[in-house]
Design goal:
alpha/beta; two-stranded antiparallel sheet; 268 residues; 10 helices; single chain; binds adenine; 9 strands
């Protein structure tokens, strides 16, 4: 997987390239991140990439020409066929796990980091194939958002996570869309539910005990407990997530039982 990132702040990415999952994935050759300074595609000696908005108003807007030039140069240099050209912006569709899973099946993605005052609309309309937001809040540029996308996608690439950290076990993972060759396909994914609670030693911390079932060694009981916890927790914390999920009759029963007790959803 190749990520081409078009940005006015290539230096922004140095810390994520040098730490954790992305560093490991790059070193092992699972992914490649190519940073492209948008100013290299300006056509004046001041390397201008923005200008004042027509119609007035505060701030500056990214000009279309450098962005088109940058993307066209990457397309020309690429041997792959078509690939997503993603404009990061608060107006885009929301990044969800399913979106990351879709990107993880691509050989290459271009990420365009916009800026919050704006990007000339002709970029969204005629250059980008996708406009993507990482949440309903405004950042001052798309760089953080691009980093989030790269992390979310890279950890889904085959071989990046070991069996122990399988993406199948993650909250929100879809049941059938993990990329082929992904690790630990034998394990049961939880079909888009939030994660079950995890505990480690000590078994008793300040009087708060680890649930006995986890200490029992009974793997079937543990699996069942975890699934129920994931269900009830999703209902309590993110009830809207359950609306999209196929629930078995056992699942419905668990939810019904839990609703009479302490498990009201946390928000309306
Ligand atoms: N640029 C500014 N805010 C953003 C957001 N919420 N998501 C993606 N890109 C952005």
């Amino acid at each position: 997987m190749i990520f081409d990132v078009i940005t006015i702040f290539p230096g922004f990415f140095s810390s994520i390239l040098e730490h954790g999952l992305l560093k490991r994935a790059l070193a092992a050759g699972h992914a490649q991140i190519c940073l492209h300074d948008l100013r290299d595609y300006a056509d004046d000696r001041h390397r201008t990439v923005d200008d004042r908005p027509f119609g007035g108003g505060p701030g500056m807007v990214f000009k279309p020409e450098p962005l088109f030039r940058a993307v066209e140069a990457l397309k020309t240099a690429s041997v792959e066929g078509s690939f997503p050209i993603v404009l990061l912006s608060p107006q885009g569709r929301l990044l969800k796990q399913a979106v990351a899973e879709g990107f993880a099946r691509q050989a290459r993605i271009i990420l365009i980091c916009g800026r919050y005052e704006g990007v000339d609309e002709r970029v969204a309309e005629n250059l980008a194939t996708d406009e993507l937001s990482i949440g309903d809040y405004v950042l001052s540029g798309g760089e953080l958002a691009a980093a989030v996308v790269m992390e979310a996608v890279t950890r889904l690439l085959p071989g990046v996570l070991g069996n122990e950290e399988s993406p199948e076990q993650d909250s929100f993972t879809s049941s059938s869309t993990t990329p082929e060759g992904s690790t630990a396909l034998g394990r049961q994914g939880r079909h888009g539910l939030l994660d079950f609670p995890q505990y480690t030693r000590p078994t008793d911390f300040r009087g708060w005990r680890v649930p006995e079932v986890l200490l029992s060694g009974n793997h079937k009981a543990i699996r069942q407990w975890r699934h129920r916890q994931a269900l009830v927790r999703t209902w309590r914390k993110r009830p809207e997530v359950l609306l999209d999920l196929p629930l078995s009759s056992d699942d419905r029963q668990v939810l019904q039982e839990s609703q009479g007790s302490t498990c009201q959803p946390l928000k309306a």
